[in-house]
Amino acid sequence: MGPNESRNLWISIGAGVFATFLLYSYSQEKRNEIEKAAGDTIRVVVAREDIRHMDTIYDNVLEIKEKLRKDVEPDAYENIQGVVGGIAAIPIKKGQTLTKNQILELGPETGMAPQVSPGKRAVTIPVSDDRANARLIRPGDRVDILAIIDSGRGVNQKREVTVLMQDVVILATGINVNNNIPRTIERDPSGRGLVQTTLTGDTRYNTITIEARIEEAQDLVYLAATNSSSLYFLLRNPYDRKVAPRVPASSAEDIQRRILPTGPSSQSPTNLAPNNGLLGR
C-alpha cells in the first residue's frame, strides 16, 4: 500500500468515525427531546363516548387521561366536576379533549330542557296569588304541593286536602327560566320607547313549571284539568330539603275533631246559652 492509499484510508476511517459521532449525537438529542416531551404530561378530561350537540354532560360520559402538554389546548378541562352539568355547544367525539369553548353554561341559549333531571318531566300549572304565595315564587325555589280532592256524591260527597308532593324544584315562572338573564326589554305601549322589566321582582306570571316524575305529572295534569284551583304551592326555605312523613289528609270532620271540644262535657251551641226565661220575650 502506497503513501497515498494509506492516507486515503485514514481519511476514510476518520470521516466514518466523525459521521458516526454526528449520528450518535443527533440520535441522543432527539431521544432527550422525546423523553422530555413524554415526561411533560397533563391530566385532562376527555369524552368516554360520543356526545351530541346540546346534550347535557354527565360524569358517565367523561374520563381523565394523561396527554402531552404540547398537544393539549390551553383551555382544556383538568377535572370532571368542572364539566358536569354543562351543555355541548358542538358534537364531541369519543377520546376528544374537552375545552371551555365547547361547553355552554346553563342560560337563555340552552333553554329549559337541560335543567330537567333525567327521569323527570317539566309540568306547567296555572297559578294565582292565593295559590302561589302571592306569586313570590322564583325559578330555583323549592315548594311543597297541596291538593284539594273531592270524592263521593250527594250526601256522601267528601272534600279532603292532602300533601301531593314535597321538595319540588321550580324550573320556571311564566317564561322566566332558572339561570336566565334576570330582565327583559320590551316596547312601551306607544311603540317608540323601551321598557326594562326586572324579572327577579316580576309577579306578572300566570303559570309555574315544576319538575316531576311521570306518574306525579299524570296526577298533576288530571287535577289541573279538572280543577286548576285545587293545587296550592307552599314555598320552602332553600336549605330545608327534609321530606316529612306523609300526614293523613285533612277533611272537615278531621278539623272539627281537632279543633272543637269533645267528650261528655262538650255542649252544642244551643246549649251554651241556657234559656233563663229571657228567650221568647
Automatic annotation (TrEMBL):
Pfam families: RcpC, SAF. It comes from the Bacteria. The keyword Transmembrane applies. Residues 245-281 are annotated as: Disordered. The chain crosses the membrane at residues 6-26. Keywords: Membrane, Transmembrane, Transmembrane helix. Residues 263-274 have a biased composition (Polar residues). Residues 42-104 form the SAF domain. The keyword Transmembrane applies. NCBIfam families: pilus_cpaB. This is Putative flp pilus assembly protein CpaB. It comes from Pseudobdellovibrio exovorus JSS.
